[in-house]
Amino acid sequence: MAQAWKCSGLRWSADGPVLAWDGGRRSALTWGKRVAFGVADGGVRTCVGARGHACPVRAAVPGRSTGARCEECARLDRAHSVAADTIADDPRPYHVYLAWFGPGMTKVGITAEERGSARLLEQGAVCFSWLGAGPLMAARRTEELLRAALRVPDRIPYADKRAVRSALPGTAAERAAEIAELHGRALALGNWPQSLRAEPFRPVDHVGVFGLAGVPAAVGAVSELVAGGVVGGQLLAAAGPDLHLDTGSGVIVLDTRLMTGWELVPAEGTEVSVPVREFRREAGVQDGLF
After folding, report:
1. Number of other residues whose CB lies within 10 A of the CB of residue 151
2. For residues 133 and 153, what is the distance between their CA atoms, to the nearest angstrom?
3. What pairing do the DSSP bridges indicate for beta strands 250-255 and 7-13?
4. pTM for the whole thing?
5. How wide is the angle at C-alpha 230 spanned by C-alphas 36 and 243, nearest 5°?
6. Which of 11, 83, 263, 276 has a CA that sits 20 to 30 A from residue 96's CA?
7. How far apart are CA 49 and CA 68, in angstroms?
8. Does position 266 have pLDDT exceeding 80, yes or no?
9. Cα–Cα–Cα angle for 265, 225, 158, nearest 5°?
């Protein structure tokens, strides 16, 4: 019987995307690499726990959940979280950023300075620029100012990001145009927190890092893994948590967050025998699968 592994998620390093596994093992992902795995027969997806601790009851979780946590562990995981606004006394400096995911899809967000651009890679930002830097609460107030004054959202759904990846503008300058205009408008606003230092516009483009140049439009996205199911294909691109795989059924997107909580085993070929949500052709969407 093949050894089973548990995935703990996709990580972005200076060398590109890496799949992390429970126990510390890591698998580097390179373009053209064959990616194939199966879900153990009779397996049940179990909660991954919270903040480094295992779920005390090993609760079963739905296959479509991207968090892979039961209700109690999800609550504990967000109990001390900047994203959930439950921390006000973090002494670390923070960056405010503008991130672009495709035409009409720009968001504002914050990330700890010490993390560099890791947060932008994790979100699948096609390009971004820093806007300012300062204490946490000043960064948070600036984020709220842009939402209120310029109607810039702080969230873009992953489904919307996936839908435009195969039809991005061809040059880095074109891809940076929207955040360039918004950066100028943001700096012209009054009422910036005095403790926040404005940053010049310096766009960073991730099309090359993600491997998105010329990537074919996807035909669908994996909606969930199931016991006994198989996913296999050749890796074409990766953005945020998504892997774009060339399979026997065309290019399919797999959100690697769906892999967590399952026992996974080696597989062969380019077969996909898990539920896949097909994209409507008229929408012109692209997605990718791992």
Report:
1. 7
2. 19
3. unpaired
4. 0.89
5. 50
6. 11
7. 8
8. yes
9. 120
